[in-house]
Amino acid sequence: MSSSQFPILKWAQRKDKLYITINVVHSKTPKIEINGKKMKYEGTDGTKNYSFELELYDEIDKENSKYNLDTRNIFLNLKKKKEGEYWPRLTLNKVKYHWIEIDWNYFVDEDEEEDAKEPNFEGKNLDEINGEINEEKDEKKNEKIIEKKDVGTNTENDNDNDFAMLGENKADISDLDKEEE
After folding, report:
1. What distance in Å separates the CA atoms of residue 150 and residue 146, rounded to the nearest whole number?
2. pTM for the full predicted model
3. What is the full DSSP assignment across the chain?
4. Which of 21, 59, 115, 147 is deepest in the core (most CB within 10 A)?
5. Fold of the 8-126 domain
6. Where are the domains of the chain?
C-alpha cells in the first residue's frame, strides 16, 4: 500500500487475553497477521490506506484468538500465550505511539478483573479473516445486481403500497406514544 496512515487502535487486557479495536470505518480487505509477538495490519476504508506493524510485549496464541468485523471497526480478542500477569504496555518497546489508546470501555485494574464487564463477543478464527472479506464482497456484488433488477420492475401501484405500509407503521408508532401517557 502506498502512503498509508495509522488507524486509531484501542486496547485493554485481562490476565489471559487482549482486546484490541482497530477503528477503520467500512474497512475493506483488511489483512491481519499475527506471528508470535509480531502484529501487522493493512486495510483501506475506500479512500485512505491504513497500516501498522507492532512488536507486542509478549506472544499471542493465534489459534485460540478471535476477531469480529463490523462497519465501524475490527475487534480482536487475542489469547495470550502466557496467562497470569498483566502486561505493563501493549508493545515491547517503551515508546508512546500517538495512535494507540487505552480502551476505557474494557479497561480494569488487575485486582478488579473478576468484576469486570466482558464484551459480548462471538468471533471467528483469525485465519478466516482474509477469506471472509472476499466472500462478503462477492455477496454484496450479487445483492447490488439483484437490487438493480428490482428497481427497474417497480410500478406506480407498488410505490403506493409502500407509502400505505409506511402510513400503517406511523399509526402504530403514534398508538405506542398514547399508551405511554
Report:
1. 6
2. 0.66
3. --S-BPPEEEEEE-SSEEEEEEE-TT-EEEEEEEETTEEEEEEE-SS-EEEEEEEBSS-EEEEEEEEEE-SS-EEEEEEESS-SS--SSSBSS----TTEEE-TTT---GGGGGGPPPP----EEGGGHHHHHHHHHHHHHHHHHHHHHHHTT--HHHHHHHHHHHHHHHHHHHHHHHHH-
4. 21
5. Immunoglobulin-like (2.60.40)
6. 8-126, 137-180
Cell of 167: 402510513
- Rounded Cα gap, residues 42 and 62, in angstroms: 18
Closest CA to 97 of 168, 11, 15, 19: 11
Phi, psi of 152 (to 5 degrees): -70, -15
Which amino acid belongs to residue 168? E
